[in-house]
Amino acid sequence: MALARPIRLIIGVCIALILLLIYQNSSSPSLPLSPIRKHKFDNGLKREPLKEFTGEPEGPLWRAEKDAYSPNNPNSARIKATLISLVRNEELEDLIPTMRELERTWNKKFNYPWTFFNDKPFSEEFKKRTQAETKAKCNYELVPKEHWDVPSWIDMDKYRTKSKAMEDNGIQYSTMLSYHQMCRWNSGMFYKHPALADMQYYWRVEPKVRFFCDVDYDVFRYMQDKNKTYGFTINIYDNPQTIPSLWPETVKFLEKHPDYLHENNAMDWLTDSKQRPDHTKKANGYSTCHFWSNFEIGDLSFWRSKEYEDYFNHLDKAGGFFYERWGDAPVHSIGLGLFADKSKIHWLVYPLGV
Predict the structure, then answer these.
(1) How far apart, in whole angstroms, are the C-alpha atoms of residue 123 and residue 111?
(2) CB-based contact 325:174 (threshold 8 Å)
(3) Does residue 296 carry a catalytic annotation?
(4) In whole angstroms, what is the distance from residue 159 CA to residue 231 CA?
(5) Catalytic residue, candidates 103, 133, 249, 296
(6) 0.90 cut: is pTM over it?
């Protein structure tokens, strides 16, 4: 009898664990818990049913047909799209594993071109080793000096004072000028590069990002067929200390251009204070929730729109890319949340991973 109670307890725990596993496997997948939270706009920023990724394709040529995506096919099924990466020569060892994984899991089937950007000329070693990872064409582009340099209206003494104060508060990269330049370029310059002039879609690839799952459909054609503006995988909070004036400047812009606000916008998501009220308060009204831009697939026509271009130019003149540490992720997210139809923002929960 002394042993009966422990045995019953063990059996009970095992049964509970089995039931929990059955429940989890039968439930719809969701994003991990805090600091990444399930998106509140399930009726807008929604995931497509799993059948669209595992059953028969609904759109033309979603899945690779024989020779349709051959690198040298003059009548290729590829649409105007490219993989892009802002990367330096010294990041080559971090980029190669990422590139190798994405080729293995997806691009070896579709052979979309790679477009690499750098503010310095690429080395021959960089070109040789990256081209060896893919059958697709690789393009090596120099960022125009006028797109990378600090704008003339930025007070560099003020920048140094502000960035040092941020560093003293533990804000990472705050005194690294190239980091500020990178955030500004990714926010409002990359889509202006001549190498992307004929492109409609891009897939941003960052060194050290991981791709675990096989993807057997043309993601770009899916975006086109479904009329999606932007695809993301992770929705996370930003550090409010890096962007205290971003939302106040956004409000100023909206006061001047109330007609730019899309009727099906995601304003509630941008200003949601229930999940992290401390963040919303410190960021002066912005929830700091944003799409993690280490992975993004987007329609370049959105960034080229008058609404977003005017918004970026307003922010650029305000100087927050240098006086604070505005990242391209919150800037992209606010732009999308205000000026895009939220039903065209797509959660790529299946089967991509970072």
Answers:
(1) 23
(2) yes
(3) yes
(4) 34
(5) 296
(6) no
